[in-house]
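Most newcomers find our protein records easier to grasp once they have seen one. A learned vocabulary of local backbone shapes supplies the integers on the structure line. Here is such a record, shown just as it appears in the course material:
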Amino acid sequence: MKASWDIFCSVVDNYGDIGVTWRLARQLVAEHQCAVRLWVDDLRAFEKICPEIDIQQQRQEQDGVEVRHWSSQWQAEAAADVVIAAFACQLPHAYMEAMADRERAPLWLNLDYLSAEDWVSGCHGLPSVKFRGVQKYFFFPGFQPGTGGLLREAGLLERRRHFQADRQARQDFLQGLGVTPAANSRLMSLFAYENAGLGSWLEALAADAQPTHLLVPEGRILGDVQRWLGVESLAVGSLQVRQSLTVQVLPFVRQEDYDRLLWCCAFNAVRGEDSFVRAQWAGQPMLWHIYRQDEDIHLDKLEAFLALYTQALSPGAKAAVLALWQAWNTEAAMAEPWKNLLQHWPEVTAHAEQWCLEQGSQADLAAALVQFYLNWI
């Protein structure tokens, strides 16, 4: 019999938590024949990335995954063979009791946040707390051997390369979103948290000799874009031109379409965790807006990734990437770091593809989770 899996997702940062768990749940069903229940406490956020979700339903099926609304009125449920608490969310106490009451205790995992910090590989797979004899384990996604890897569906990179090589497919996809960039423009995407440094970057793009068509999916950065443009409102479908810069607001799209959007662009600014990983699979230059944490501890996480990501770059290109990412994540002026990056564009572009291939040669997160369970039983 195939193993049953329960994945619990408490939506904290709008879409990152549900984005990761929804991709994982589907992959476990499609590629590993697992029976998966995905418990989500915010179906409205889920609906944004999966429009088929009925926010009124307590129980429904999507892509082979049983989606359950995780509400405060918890009803008694039997615990699964594998229980994943995504990003350290607290399971319902009654469910934890159900785990302890099983004849055979389940595998209980805390699927943690993605990090490139050195300590991750040392903590990955270690036991954590116990509840009535049920042992919880740490499970860390990561970029190096000894971690849980990254979410990557089977054949993803092949589909991406095929799409990027098919000019007509890219054009049809963009036209479906109402996007018709000029032939000589640099297509870029911007998905980020609020950032005071945005204005200086947009000024640089507007003054550049090469035109830029900037695609901005609706989200938290729109207020900063609107202020820089000096317009009263900025809604989905808005198209604004300032010198060499065209800004276009896109609707929030399902995950598969967001992947294709990243594949179409020559540069992607992303945020959080899910879009951060998907930008890496796009094989294009990127910029990560990391989620801010108290006492700036997120900057340690940023530095750890940059040390790994820039290792193979020449000194000049490495310095350019570091300066841009550090400026963006400290809300500093972006014009000079951006101009400097453009001086190393060919190398940075080639490096993005090479990094993607290197990461793609490692075991993916879903496969690593399944193997951990098989080893555990």
Summary: The radius of gyration is 21 Å. The chain has 15 helices and 14 strands. The first strand starts at residue 4 and ends at 9.
